Amino acid sequence: MTRPAKRITSADVAEAAGVSRTTVSYVLNNRPGQTIPEETRKRVLAAAERLRYRPHASARALAAGRSDIVLLSIPDLPIGPSISRFVEELTVALAEHGLTLVTHLEAERGRPLPDVCATVGASAVLGFEGFDEATVEALHGLGVRVVLPPTDAHLSAMPPLGRMQAEHLIGRGHRRIGYLLPSPARFRRMGEERLQGVAEACADAGIAPPLALGAADLEIAPLARVVRRWQDAEVTGVCAFNDEHAIALLAAMRQLELTAPDDLAIVGADDIPMARFAAPPLSTVYFDLREAGAQRAEAVAAGLTGRRMVLGGPGASLRLVQRLSS
Question: Which of 264, 277, 281, 274 is CA-nearest to residue 322?
Fold first, then answer.
């Protein structure tokens, strides 16, 4: 059996460069206040590159007083295009601050978040919504410096998303709004939060509350029955839970020989890649994921360096795309 190669250490770099380990530490960690000659600095960097030296995470954490690990807790939801893209954008944004992202998918029988955090040695933990006080206390007890969003923060972007959907339809002249509820049960809470925003927009506009209906499955027949109920109630515009639901709804309308937006205007959510290829192309509300990732990375970096953390409002990264369906 071949023995694994010996890990390259700072001592190896120091020997190759002909300097002390202290000099290597100063150069590789870019320590301020040190007067290392440029020629020596270049020699150390060249030796580190030649030996393919990578700092040991625990040693680097000890020197810095913290790790560079940021743990993102992802709700127990299907990892669709939006969540995947957000993880990508957040990873890039954190890397610009010298931080590394690790993700943890919440699951009913999975490991508790504090246990995962202890395993990876995270210095910051991010969530899609505020953690309960017990979890925050446990995380801080493990040495986590930054936990976002705060427990008492009302940072869910779901109501603002629903509000933006409804305001778009109301602005187009629709006075009776419908809402297509999510069919999988685990989406119910998110769907109700988005519906809350739709209802708030209707109330502000002085029109009737939205008629929220759902189908057991995203199938043509049950969705067609939902469309008929909206027609009977004189609904002219519908906010769908997300783009998949909206596209399925458009298919049911075609079965009934109805068209959007003439018979029923439709607006979805998330702007998935297929939204622009729907028939007709789907109007939708989406998150500017690059902005959201950059904003959260900046807040984490600020918190880790003792600066004031600033998070934008829950709707700051929302954008509306108007297409032919509305």
Answer: 281
